[in-house]
Amino acid sequence: MAAPPAPSELSTDAGPRRRLTEADAIDVWIARWLRARPVDLCRRYQCDPRRLYEIWEGQRFPAAREKAWQIFQERYPALVDRVNPGWHRRIPRGQHPDQLELFE
C-alpha cells in the first residue's frame, strides 16, 4: 500500500477528481482518527468532501473501517483509547416536526 502524497506536495488547484479505492478508504479512516482536517483529505485524494462522508457513514467500503481499526491499533497503540472508532453520525440541521409542540 503506497503512501499518499503529503498535502504540501499537492497543488491547491482543482484538478480532475478521482475515484477512491478501498486502500484510500482505509487511509481516510486512519487520518480521521489522527484528526486530519477534511479539507486536507479532499486535497490529498482530489475528491469531493461528500465522498469522505460516504466512507465515514459506511455507504462506501463498509469493511474498510474494521481493517483501518486493526492497522491503527498496531501503528498507534497509545492513541487507541483517545479515539472513537464508530461511524460518523449526521446531525440534522432542521427542527424536528414534534419540536414545535413543546411551545403550544
SSE order and pairing:
Layout lengths: L21 H12 L4 H8 L3 H8 L7 H12 L29
Helix pairs in contact: 1-4
SSE order, one letter for each helix or strand: HHHH
- Main sheet overview: none
Helix content: 25-40%
Question: Which stretches are poorly predicted, pLDDT < 50 over at least 5 residues?
Answer: 7-12
In short, what is this structure?
This protein is mainly alpha-helical and 104 residues long. It has helices at 22-33, 38-45, 49-56, 64-75.
Question: What does it look like?
Answer:
- By secondary structure, the chain is mainly alpha-helical.
- It has a domain at 12-79.
- Helix content is 38%, strand content 0%.
- The protein has helices spanning 22-33, 38-45, 49-56, 64-75.
- It starts with 21 loop residues before the first helix and ends in a 29-residue tail after the last helix.
- The model is unreliable at 7-12 (pLDDT under 50).
What would the keywords be for this entry?
globular; single chain; mainly alpha; 104 residues
